[in-house]
Amino acid sequence: MIPLYRPGASLLHRMPAGAKLLLLLAVGIVVSLWRESLWAPALAWGLVLLGYLLVRQRAAAGVLQAAGNGLWVLLRQLWRLKWLVVLVAVPQLIFLEPTTAALNTARILAVILLAGLFTLTTRVSDVLELLTRGLLPLERAGLGRLGLTAERLSLAMALTMRSVPVVFGFYREIIEARMARGASTSPAAAVSMTTPLLVMSLRHAEETAEALAARGVR
């Protein structure tokens, strides 16, 4: 569910990271406050559709080709979120009216897709710089005396963002290796995958720590 940054020349790629984050925050607040209104989720989904139509824009590509590429990215993101939709929608359908459950699910899904759009069009270096500026007041408030500087905290968050897709990659490698040996990949067999996944994740963490130490980061 966490897409990696994809280079591009669209309007969203050129927007400052802070402006995109504030827009995402504003949409999240609007769809949370106006729960009974159809306009809030409609506006959010309008922004989702517009954003994904723009994300694949290229100077050399035609308008229709760019729009088609954007819709393909959106459909792929929706497919990745299919189980989340089930987990969110089914419990609500049990206790709430279908219309209310559908509106709640639509709001949550729209905000998640917009968050994915932010990651898709924003460099990690830009996010790191934005976090550093945002955490400076906390550093001045006293966290700096504990060794928790804005630079260290933003670096930790950036490493977390980078590590999530890496760990998912390890999981895919384990599944492919099991399938190549003819082993089962059922949910019950997933328990046996935790040990190699843990070993690979710890090895990645050690390599990252060594790389940081080699660059003078304590």
TrEMBL record:
UniProt keyword list: Membrane, Transmembrane, Transmembrane helix
Q: How does it sit in the membrane?
A: Multi-pass membrane protein
Superkingdom assignment: Bacteria
Compartments, record wording:
Membrane
Statement: the UniProt record of this protein carries the keyword Membrane = yes
Name the InterPro entries on file: ABC/ECF_trnsptr_transmembrane (IPR003339)
Entry protein name: Energy-coupling factor transporter transmembrane protein EcfT
Native organism:
Nesterenkonia massiliensis
Its taxonomic path starts at: Bacteria, Bacillati, Actinomycetota, Actinomycetes, Micrococcales
